Amino acid sequence: MNKKILVIGGAGYIGSHVQKQLLDEGFEVVVFDDLSSGDIVNVLDGATFIKGNILDEALLNDVMKQGFDGVVHLAAKKAVGESMIHPEVYAKNNIIGAINILNAMANNNIKYIVFSSSAAVYGMPLYTPIDEKHPIRPINYYGYTKRAIEENMEWFDKLGKIKYISLRYFNAVGYHKDGCIRGKERNPQNLMPIIMEAATEKREGFSIFGNDYDTEDGTCVRDYIHVSDLAKAHSLALKNLFQNNNSYAINLGTGVGTSVKEIVDATEKVIGKKLNYSYAERRPGDPAKLTADATKAKEILGWKPEYTDVSEIISTVWNLEI
Ligand code: UFG
């Protein structure tokens, strides 16, 4: 598609996959990233790179003066635990950073934004699978920042400045199947990269947080969605904005729940060896089960996940190691 997109946070884990998807579909892609957690190796051939931070209002304004058909915003701090210890860091980077982006868009008449939101906006699930009508009650500051940004987008929309699609991700996992994205997250906090570090002996082992939940095997159940499927939803969202000019908040998950123990067992099968782990106390704030109702993504975007087998998803990560 012959449109020019600014991908903010495009050198990060999800951003690089979005970049790949957009380049493959013929979009013109400019990546804006401060490389604080992203990696320059994730900037792919064909994309233009601008090193910058979203707190730099003047630079954002200058960059947007080039003119863009749309913005994808994925630049954010995302460690839930850290957000409860340093809310000030999350307030600044996530909320102020996003407002700077919206302001720069308004100043430069750029109308369309696809935003990287999270299932964390819902807080403790009152029911599963969670649809978009589920009450919004974040229980950690990270989730609150995502909601605060959605609220600002709702206002900017009402006031005629933007149209947005907020994509509420469930648990993003996997890597592009071609191995074209190789930058790893530094100091990962999520289950899959932690397991992979244990599998490659970058760490001694890991803990499964809690085995006394009200689930089949006692460990937490999550909705693991392949990052390339997530990425595809971003290009569909952009195209939807260009065509229909409507704003939405949309869940992105598979609807299938997989327990931590099932992930660990599946990983052992994929890598062909035992992992070193033990059971530990529950992690505060973890719901027993979190799965998505992704009906709206299908209806509005025509999106459906291609990866449905968790072993296949795990293989896309392991293939980078072997
Ligand atoms: N887990 C372990 N051991 C670890 C790490 C994680 O047992 O070393 C468990 C967690 O307790 C949880 C599951 O693995 O039950 C998944 O944990 P992650 O930290 O990978 O992911 P979360 O489900 O906690 O959170 C993720 C994103 C959030 C997002 C949320 C929404 O990290 O940003 O999904 O669903 F808000």
Report the average pLDDT across residues. Answer: 97
* Main β-sheet description: 7 strands, parallel
What is CATH's topology name of the largest domain?
Rossmann fold
Helix content: 25-40%
Cα distance spanning the termini? 35 Å
Output the helix-strand order.
Answer: EHEEHEHHEHEEHEEEHEEHEEHH
Low-confidence residue ranges = none
Q: Quickly count the domains.
A: 2
Strand composition percent = 15-25%
SS class: alpha/beta
List strands and helices in order, with pairings.
Layout: E1 4-8, H1 13-24, E2 28-33, E3 48-51, H2 57-64, E4 70-73, H3 80-85, H4 87-107, E5 112-118, H5 141-158, E6 163-169, E7 171-173, H6 191-199, E8 206-209, E9 221-222, E10 224-226, H7 227-244, E11 248-252, E12 258-259, H8 260-271, E13 277-280, E14 289-290, H9 295-301, H10 310-318
Parallel strand pairs: 1-2, 1-4, 2-3, 4-5, 5-6, 6-11, 7-10, 8-13, 9-14
Antiparallel strand pairs: 9-12
Uridine-5'-diphosphate-4-deoxy-4-fluoro-alpha-D-galactose binds next to helix 6 and strand 8.
Can you describe this structure?
- The chain is globular.
- β1, α1 and β2 form a beta-alpha-beta unit.
- α1 (13-24) packs across α7 and α4 runs parallel beside α5 (141-158).
- The chain has helices at residues 13-24, 57-64, 80-85, 87-107, 141-158, 191-199, 227-244, 260-271, 295-301, 310-318; strands spanning 4-8, 28-33, 48-51, 70-73, 112-118, 163-169, 171-173, 206-209, 221-222, 224-226, 248-252, 258-259, 277-280, 289-290.
- It has 10 helices and 14 strands.
- It has a 7-stranded parallel sheet with strand order 3-2-1-4-5-6-11, with helices on both faces. A 3-stranded mixed sheet has the order 12-9-14.
- It folds into 2 domains: 4-172 and 225-252, 3-Layer(aba) Sandwich (Rossmann fold); 191-222 and 255-318, UDP-galactose 4-epimerase, domain 1.
- Bound molecules: uridine-5'-diphosphate-4-deoxy-4-fluoro-alpha-D-galactose.
- The site of uridine-5'-diphosphate-4-deoxy-4-fluoro-alpha-D-galactose (UFG) has 21 residues, from α6 and β8.
- Uridine-5'-diphosphate-4-deoxy-4-fluoro-alpha-D-galactose is lined by residues 78, 80, 118-120, 170-171, 189-191, 194, 206-209, 220, 222, 260, 283, 286, 290.
